[in-house]
Write a structure and sequence with these properties.
heterodimer, A: 143 residues, mainly alpha, Helicase, Ruva Protein, domain 3, 5 helices, 0% strand, elongated, B: 650 residues, alpha+beta, four-stranded antiparallel β-sheet, 63% helix, globular
Amino acid sequence: MIRTGQVLVLTALLACAAAWAVDPTHLADPKLQARYVALTHELRCMQCQNESIADSPVDLAADLRRSVRELLEQGKSDAEIRAWMVARYGDFILFRPRFIWRNAWLWSAPLVLLAIGVLVSWRIVRTRAALVAAEPDGADGEP
Amino acid sequence: MLPELGHFALILALLLAALQALFGLAGPALGRERWMAAVTPAVAGQAVMVATAFACLVSAFVGNDFSVAYVAENSNSALPLFYRVTALWGAHEGSLLLWIALLASWTVAVAIGAARLPPRFAARVLGVLGLVSFGFLLFTLATSNPFLSIDPPAPDGRDLNPILQDPGLAVHPPILYTGYVGFAVAFAFACAAMLEGRLDQHWARWTRPWTTAAWAFLTCGIALGSFWAYYELGWGGYWFWDPVENASFMPWLVGTALVHSLAVTDKRGLFKSWTLLLAILAFSLSMLGTFLVRSGVLVSVHSFAADPTRGVFILAFLIIMIGGALTLYAWRAPLLKSSAGFELGARESFLLFNNVLLVIAAATVFAGTLAPLISDALRLGTVSVGPPYFNPTFMLSMLPLLALLSVGIHANWKRGRLKDRQRTLLYTLVGAAVLGCGVAFGIWSHGALLTPVGMTLAIWIALSSLVDPFDRWRRGLSLPRAVIGMTVAHLGVALAVLALTTVQSFTSEQDVALAPGASATVGGYDFRFEGVKPVEGPNYDAQGATLVVSRHGARVAVLKPEKRQYWVQRQVISETAIRMSRGSNILVALGEDLGGGRWSLRIQIRPLVSLIWLAALVMAIGGALAASDRRYRTQQVAAAAGAAAAEPAA
């Protein structure tokens, strides 16, 4: 049987999943509006799992959207707004992990993997090409 | 009575799975022919028992038997009959029974096909499948029994989660699971080959159709999930890089690599140990998908179950299965050396690059999905990983993959004679670039840098995949299903790239607040809001809005999005309204009542978005065509006997 705590978690999650926010906020400056849309999609709702504050229907997300809007209208840069959010809610709020040392493994993983992949492929191809070169001609074609 | 029968059948299925595993694995090892002969009856018996259990649970749902706890929690007497049946896999316990039933079906299919395989090998394959089935049955009976009863019976059920009351979700889990479970067959073939200590090209030929079929189902399942999320859950998004989506995407990426690696093992006898590793990995990721979704470790939008004890069981099971397979691999893989060679420009090289890039993509998704856990375990603090990480890092390996596909498709086996194909390569690339840039800049006047790149790649892949079939047709050569299937699947890739590029570049979306009679203009369409009226459904009440959509004064559609409140769960669900027009999907979702008759609304126009799912379907059809090629079905015993004589244990 499911325990009460889990039911509560489940209910909260379902409330988040079932209704998404529609946010008719419209800033007069189209550049600011574009930045508003981009930023609200990159900030995570602390209450719902895996939803941005742009999509989350809960009050906390609405408050955060209002903060983003106010900070934008005060002329803050994107970086400053992100820093403002991190200062209050921690790194958990950023869907885009910051480029800092402790996230280095995460951001470098794809590049390191790609480098290893290129190296390994190059070695395999070189070995196999040497085998073809060593063969007598005429052993070609699909077996 | 029926639920007890179902429970009993499940226990018998567990015992039969144990016998199937024992006879299938110990029989060949000890050389007991009569044990091996008992494997197929065990498979049949297990299938009958699982089918009985499944039928009992279906009948409990259809007959509104609320003395069964699982039925009481996930159904309701007012629920339409169709959803009473599909409610079976609406939650954890029933999903597991569905998984087990699908595994039993795959196993029966393998047992029928196994008549063409050497008996020792066939027994081992079925033995491994019995072991997998045993683990899942034990898990179900020990932690997640769907037949547990409640006393006194509930007067009525708590209803199926309203989000799941949708035809899309009715078919999404069975098809996705068919794909997941299908990789168990590839896994079993791999383990059997390692137990035999021999892996020849016939092995690849036996394994290929099963793997391709599983891959095709998984492709369809993921696409259906994306489609469901688009119109039911996500309000117009089609991919969220949500942990649960990633959990199904990782086995797909590795499975795609496996399908290609098997081609090399089949044609050239190369990449043997790598193919085995991919088979183990694909199924491990399928099981990890179950673990991620069902354990509550990574709670996400889709996670409807959260129970740590189950997670511990699955983790132990994963460690035993994967650890066992990898140990076997470490022991046997060094025996599987091949001395065949190939040159840089040969097809083998390109399939190698394909595999490397697909596995890197899967590893990247893996890193991003598990980063919150990893970061926490290493005490690096909290981190969230979302689309801003996944989109660029995924592209890093996908763009070279797509470009290399267009080149590699022209390459021959073994010899790198790409120079002979210089003209074809150049013509297709130039043609694709002209068309791609023309479409990107001509039809739409704006767009990002990736727009012409994506368009060009899509057209290049399409042109390139048609060169070989066209050439064969012109020279009067036969066109086997395997080639047609490959071509169709690659055309599906081209369609997917075209659709994704278009959708990402040219979507118009706006959230608006409208009073009755007011209009908004989005993406060249006018939306006039007519107001909101109450609507009553079979098991819900709703607020229904009406919007008249027109373009240049001509009426295009009338859209009626709703906000539904379901009676039993009192949950508010938004039903989007979608209409296709000129290749674009117009989507409207109803937001909040802002007072005075004003409502907030989301309006979104996504060009070619339907093509994304269609492309997945085309890929799956390609897979089905390739899997049904006759070369996989004829003369296998004779070929195997010949091979056994020619190639003794490596």
